[in-house]
Structures are given as structure tokens and as C-alpha cells.
């Protein structure tokens, strides 16, 4: 993902405006905002796809926003994501369900928690979750907090991020290996839970635990959940570079990704474990029944819990948080980790 965006920017700088190396790319909000501002994306095209109507964007406005940035037809949705926490229920009876409870639990159970080293995507996601929840706890108005995070970061960053750094300062020495070393990815984090190095982990895929149990990468006793106030959620999109050599083919592939059959197969596939973007009533009755069964599989998060969603902050908050984290705890600037 990161390399694809870097290559696209380099191609444009070299004057390659017609024969790019990619026809369709998966973007997150941070990179979409960068490429859209630089006028490096083809479009608008997304809402012209026959299958776009199946996402019911009028009912689900998040299908037209990427980290709060309006897509305006330059991206097409293809899967949903949401932050979940998971644990082995044979080792941990009652997991923490708020940021404050998480802080207290970490301090009472030193060495039992860690997170991927920012700017690894998953580690930064946890920081943003804590940033939003702690700011809401401190503020008299949740609407004010939501408005602040939906806009580009300003001088208010110091004020709104202060509770986050206080939180991290308090838990740092109680992390696995006393915060001296961090996992580099969600894969390493999952392995640490499976190997019983830690007791609580997290992922940015609602079906992470279900698929990992099916692959024997997590114990069958593993359960997952979201915080009481909700967790960060977003939609993943695909976009067509402005210099894509096969734009028509890219649109055909994107439309195929939005078909009920592909969305259904991706949801029940143990390796993909994708969360569909299609409105549920646009699946066949048989597919709906199978998806309901899948939602009750061992380790699954309940649909009621997944309804508790928090909007992603504007992409500029991601950059600001990562810079400040590296300054305080990083001692360097590593490359992006895996998703």
C-alpha cells in the first residue's frame, strides 16, 4: 500500500502520465487525501458503477467518506473495518471495556499488553481510538470533539492530545518488555497472544478472530469485543490512478468487487474474513442466512457491538500523532508496518 502510493507519486514526478504501473489501488484515508490533493487520481467514476447502488450510500454516508474526506466519486468502497479487542477467555475473565479501564488493567497486569510500534497502521489506530475516547471523556461536548477531529489538525492538537500522552506515559513501563520493544505488525501481536506472552490484543478487522481460530492461529477459547463507547470504524476503498493504462478494466474489476457473490465469498473466506460494504438486504436470502451463521461463529463480535462505531479523525491527525509518538517514545522513524 505505502509502496504503491510512493511509486505513483514518483511516476508523476518523472512525467509518466499515461503508462503507470497500476490500474487499481487500495488506499486508506491518509493516502487518498494526499493523492486527491495532488490531482493524481482518475475520476469521478465510482458512482457510475452498476453495483454501486448496492452499498446504499444515501443510507450509509460513510460510503462516500474516507477518514472524513469526501470521496466525490474518486474511490469505490470494497470492505469495512473496525477496531476490535480480543483475549483468551481461559486466561482473562473480564477484559477492560473503556480506555480508563484499559489503563488500570495494564498497570495491574504489567507485561500483559503491548501494541505495534507507530507508524505501523494498527498501532496508530489504537492511539487514535484512545485520543478520541479520552478527549470525549474530558470534554463537556462530544459534538465539539467530533467536529474538531473531522477537520484538519490545528494548534488545538496539543490540547486535545494531552490526555493521550498522559495515558501512554502511565502505561509505558507496564507494557510487554517494559515498552523497550514493540511488535511491528498485527501478525506479531496475534502471535504474542497465541504464545501467551500477552493476555489482550486487538485488530482492525471484525472477523480477525473467527478467521484466525479457523486457521489454528488462535485458541478456540478466544473471544472478541468492542469498547462500551464504540471503536474506530472506516470503509476501505479502491481508486484508479490518473496514469492507469487500463482505466476501463479497472472499473470492471471494481464493479465486480461490489457484486453480492464476491462480497459474500470474501466475508466467509477464512483468509480474507472481509466485512461486506453491501447493504444486508441486497444479499440473497441464502447468503443472508449464511452471514448470520458466520456472525455467531466462535470468536465473533456480535452485530449489536459492531453497531457502536466511532468516526476516524481527519488524516492530518494521523501524521501529527505519529510524529509526536516517535518524538516521545520512538527514538527513530521506522517504515510503515503491515496493515
Automatic annotation (TrEMBL):
Q: Which InterPro entries match?
A: SBP, YnjB
What Gene3D superfamilies does its record include? Periplasmic binding protein-like II (3.40.190.10)
- Pfam families in the record, alphabetically? SBP_bac_8
PANTHER family noted in UniProt: PROTEIN YNJB
Protein name as annotated: ABC transporter substrate-binding protein
Amino acid at each position: 500500500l505505502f509502496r504503491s502510493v510512493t511509486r505513483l507519486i514518483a511516476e508523476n514526478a518523472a512525467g509518466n502520465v499515461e503508462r503507470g504501473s497500476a490500474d487499481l489501488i487500495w488506499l486508506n484515508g491518509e493516502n487518498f487525501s494526499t493523492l486527491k490533493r495532488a490531482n493524481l487520481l482518475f475520476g469521478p467514476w465510482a458512482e457510475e458503477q452498476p453495483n454501486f447502488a448496492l452499498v446504499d450510500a444515501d443510507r450509509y454516508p460513510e460510503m462516500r467518506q474516507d477518514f472524513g474526506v469526501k470521496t466525490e466519486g474518486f474511490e469505490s468502497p470494497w470492505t469495512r473495518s473496525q477496531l476490535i479487542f480480543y483475549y483468551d477467555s481461559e486466561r482473562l475473565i473480564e477484559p477492560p471495556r473503556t480506555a480508563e479501564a484499559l489503563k488500570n488493567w495494564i498497570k495491574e497486569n504489567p507485561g500483559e499488553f503491548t501494541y505495534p510500534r507507530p507508524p505501523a497502521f494498527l498501532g496508530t489506530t489504537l492511539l487514535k481510538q484512545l485520543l478520541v475516547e479520552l478527549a470525549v471523556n474530558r470534554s463537556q461536548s462530544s459534538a465539539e470533539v467530533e467536529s474538531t477531529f473531522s477537520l484538519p489538525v490545528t494548534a488545538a492538537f496539543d490540547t486535545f492530545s494531552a490526555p493521550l500522552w498522559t495515558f501512554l506515559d502511565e502505561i509505558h513501563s507496564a507494557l510487554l518488555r517494559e515498552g523497550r520493544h514493540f511488535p511491528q505488525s498485527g501478525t506479531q501481536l496475534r502471535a504474542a497472544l497465541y504464545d501467551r506472552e500477552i493476555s489482550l490484543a486487538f485488530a482492525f478487522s471484525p472477523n480477525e478472530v473467527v478467521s484466525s481460530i479457523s486457521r489454528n492461529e488462535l485458541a478456540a477459547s478466544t473471544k472478541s469485543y468492542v469498547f462500551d463507547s464504540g471503536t474506530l470504524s472506516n470503509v476501505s476503498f479502491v481508486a484508479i490512478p490518473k496514469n492507469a493504462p487500463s482505466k476501463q478494466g479497472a472499473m470492471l474489476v471494481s464493479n465486480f468487487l461490489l457484486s453480492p457473490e464476491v462480497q459474500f465469498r470474501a466475508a466467509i473466506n477464512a483468509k480474507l474474513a472481509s466485512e461486506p460494504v453491501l447493504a444486508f438486504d441486497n444479499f440473497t436470502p441464502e447468503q443472508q442466512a449464511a452471514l448470520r451463521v458466520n456472525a455467531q461463529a466462535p470468536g465473533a463480535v456480535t452485530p449489536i457491538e459492531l453497531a457502536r462505531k466511532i468516526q476516524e479523525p481527519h488524516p492530518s491527525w494521523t501524521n501529527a500523532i505519529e510524529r509526536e509518538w516517535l518524538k516521545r517514545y520512538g527514538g527513530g522513524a521506522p517504515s510503515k508496518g503491515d496493515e
